[in-house]
Every structure is written in C-alpha cells, then in structure tokens.
Design a protein that fits this description.
This is Type I restriction modification DNA specificity domain-containing protein. It holds the Pfam family Methylase_S. With 208 residues, this protein is α+β, with helices and mostly antiparallel strands. The chain folds into 2 domains: 4-155, Alpha-Beta Complex (Adenine-n6-DNA-methyltransferase TaqI, Chain A, domain 2), CATH 3.90.220; 157-208. It is built from 5 helices and 12 strands. A hairpin with a 5-residue loop joins β10 (133-134) and β11.
C-alpha cells in the first residue's frame, strides 16, 4: 500500500474567510466580485447559479480570502463535508470566500486539483475531512486550516491522478449536460401545456 503523505507538504496556500463583521448587508451590490456561500459548494465544481456581490474595492481588503481558478474551497462551519474546486472556465476570475469557509491551493506539480476534490468526496476522504469535527455547538471543523494541513492521505502518482480526474470529470460533464437537457425539456413541456390550455380556453372548450 502507498504511504500516506501529510497535506502540509503539498499545499502552496491556505487561508480562512473574513470575519463575519467584515461583510455587512450594506456591502452587497448588484454586480461586482461574487461572495461564496454553502449553496456554491454543492458539487465537485463550484456551482455558479446564485451569488451576492461586493465591490472591487471591498474585495481588495480580503486579500487572503480571495479564491481564484484552481483553488479549492471547503466549508469549516455549518454544512460540513462540502468541498469544491474553481475550474479554469469559471465565470469569474476571483471570488470572496465566506466566514464559514477556507481556501486551499495545492502544488499543481504534485496534486491534481480535481482529483483531490473527488477523493475528499469519497467515503475515505469524508472520513479524513471530518476527523477533526467539533462535537460542541454549531457543527464545525476544529482549528480548520491547522488540522487540514496535518491530514495524512494516500495518493497515487500524478499521472494516475490525472487519468482518474479525467474520467470522473467526463462523467460529471455528461451528468451536467443531461440535467440541462432535462431542465430544458421540462420547461418546453410546461410551456406547451400552458399554450395548449390557453388555446382550449379561447376555443371555449374548457373554462375556469
């Protein structure tokens, strides 16, 4: 069996989100730099369906809390176990992580970003990630960044990581496409039913 490797030897950057008091309701604007929350970490890749925004100037005050393409974002308080990566084709170049998250950037010569996210979604990975969960009060990872760096994980070689990530990413793409097709089909069926109903009403074949 391969030897376990401590994550601290593979991490280039790791930092917590801003303090809760650093982002107030009146800081949010209609468009700007997106601020992440738990709803953006529901899958392997960052979900970009909904955002709140802060100004470029405000975002610049959170230098260490800025996540970029290639970064991994992890929930450390609230819905534990959430972990997603920001793909190279993300909508935005940078994001402000929330007070309940921390971000990690691994050495991309040693760790394939997508692979390690898939790994942490596995039963093995979730057990590792939640091994320092606090059992007092709100669900949280105790000393999140410190304990995350101390985790010891078994990794295959980099080429194998790439191959595994490629296969799983391809499956994800197909699932996402299928979901979009289903959503589009549902929309068309609903629209068709509305048009049909309207036509029947106009023809006095049905009444309400």
């Amino acid at each position: 069996m391969d030897n376990e490797i401590q994550l601290s030897t593979l991490i280039d950057e790791i930092s917590m989100g801003p303090f809760g008091s650093d982002i107030k309701i009146d800081n949010f604007i209609d468009i700007g730099v997106p601020v992440l929350n738990g709803s953006n970490l529901t899958g392997y890749r960052l979900s970009e369906n909904s955002f709140k925004y802060v100004s470029e100037e405000k975002a610049n005050t959170f230098r260490k809390a800025i996540a970029k393409r290639g970064d991994i974002v992890i929930t450390h308080r609230g819905t534990l176990g959430q972990i997603s990566f920001i793909p190279e084709n993300s909508k935005y170049e940078r994001y402000v992580i929330s007070q309940s998250q921390f971000r990690v950037r691994f050495n991309d010569k040693k760790i394939h970003t997508a692979f390690i996210v898939y790994l942490f979604h596995s039963e093995y990975g979730q057990k590792k990630l939640l091994s320092f969960k606090s059992h007092v009060g709100v669900p949280a990872l105790a000393q999140a960044t410190t304990n995350f760096k101390r985790l010891e994980i078994v990794f295959p070689d980099f080429v194998t990581q790439q191959k595994i990530a490629s296969v799983l990413s391809s499956l994800d793409d197909k699932i996402e496409l299928n979901n979009k097709l289903n959503d589009n089909l549902s929309y068309k069926i609903t629209l068709l039913l509305l048009v049909r109903s309207s036509a029947l009403v106009e023809a006095n074949l049905v009444s309400y």
